[in-house]
Design brief:
The protein is α/β, with parallel strands linked by helices. It has 2 domains: 148 residues, Rossmann fold; 198 residues, Dihydrodipicolinate Reductase, domain 2 (2-Layer Sandwich). The protein is 34% helix and 29% strand. The strands form 3 sheets. It has a 9-stranded mixed beta sheet with strand order 16-13-12-11-7-10-9-8-17. Helix 4 runs parallel beside helix 5 and helix 9 packs across helix 11. The chain is globular and about 75 Å long. The termini are far apart. The model has no long low-confidence stretch (mean pLDDT 97).
Length: 369
Amino acid sequence: MSAPQCRWGILGAAVIARKNWQAIRLSGNGTLTAVASRSVEKSRQFIAENQAHVPFPTVPAALGSYDELLKRSDVDAIYIPLPTGLRKEWVIKAAEAGKHVLVEKPVGVTTADVRDMLAACQKSGVQFMDGVMFMHSQRLQKLRTVIDDGESIGRLRRIAMQFSFNAGDEFLSNNIRVSSNLEPQGCLGDLGWYTIRFALWTMNYQMPIRVTGRLLDEAKRADSPTTVPLEFSAEMLFRDGVSASFYNSFQTENQQWAHLSGTKGFVHVPDFVLPFFGSEAAFTVSQAAFHQSGCDFNMEDHTRREAVREYSNSEANAQETNLFRTFNDLVLSGRVDSHWGDIALRTQIVLDACLESARNGNRPIDITV
């Protein structure tokens, strides 16, 4: 007798959905029933290309409308990789159709959007989760142990992060991430969601009490009504004096690092969003020591490497597969975990406050929850 499976539908044929097609297949407790796009031809092409690389035993159905997908009785959960400007409508429709929802990030255009989405999911009793894959990496468990052991870094004082890539001219002319209709938060939404989430995770989801955002550069494609952030930085202040900073950009080459500094040492994660290709996810812990004797001034490097045996992608224990396996477990258990919606809302609140600050002359914004 086969094990129970969470039956998925993909709403939209975005590039990231290709990775998650494979994650569903590798999860062991999920399967893909159907894919919907604006045209059945596009759905068929998407299915054919992915089925050739990672086949499902039964070829998913190709649908020519999103509503058609939501009406199917053989779909338990919907994965929504649509542009941010379109997500609210379809998250709510999916919830009202009784479908569990996994949505890409940023979750909404505004905090109010996210509250409406969560209310719809709660009313229908369905699971909500955003698609932040690193939240499901085994590395986070090891990192939490190091942060909390009291000795490796001591008392946390500072969090610094950067997530950026150099997009190029074609991207800046045509990509949806420079359209204020589709992705109005630009690099802050696309990349800042991760840096904000990592800071909140580090702080056990304690909210910052004040944020300051700075819009360093902005741009828009020809059909965009207004500009969107192209380069952005922000500061966050938490209770007990812990501070955090992040920088996001579509103009700076690939970087995705996080640095946690404390009273006794520091942790460096060079690839916290997408682990470097390989079979391990790692970070380093350092406790540099300075010694002076006479004319000798020595700064000693005392660094150790911590790692978990986890593939970067495309394997059964990769973080994106863990994400879908976790989601499938919740659906199959009949239990709804509100934690995932809560942390998405907290991330959106901080993101909105950072953007509000930047749009208002870098005025500090106090956050109350």
